Amino acid sequence: MARVKLQKETSPVFIWVVFFLITTVTMGVLFAGIPGSGFNGLRSGVYFDMEAGFDDARFMDSRIKCESSEAIKAVRAALLELRPDYPIERVTLKLENYPSGYKFQVRYVTYYAQKLNIGGDKLFRRGSQVGDPAIDAEVKQKDAEVEKVIRDALESYFASRSAK
Q: Which of 3, 100, 121, 155 is most open to solvent, judged by the fewest CB atoms within 10 Å of its CB?
């Protein structure tokens, strides 16, 4: 016949301490997020690393040859001046030659906002507008700054190619 040796009963204080420790860590991660990852928790605020872009055109003599690879170097250099840790490898630029000039598509990384919206139409809002005027204005100002740097770099590139 096999004998079973019973262990001591775990202290109820230990069980409560472990329960509160797990709960505290979980709530901390939900609120503060995980540093170094894309998860910022449920805190409202302005964060960096959202894909954005725009399409536009530059009217000029179509016989002037402009290369996407040269233009993107100018854009990336300007973005590094704005923010030294800018992820320039995620910036893309496509130039298309038309009879009236060049059409271009730019994709880049910019700022976004997030906000927990209890009682609203969506529980959690993330993007360029979240319904908080202060946060929305800050995101708009920072995104406009990034876009202006890109547009200025493209304009100076076109000007260097003798575009009028």
A: 3
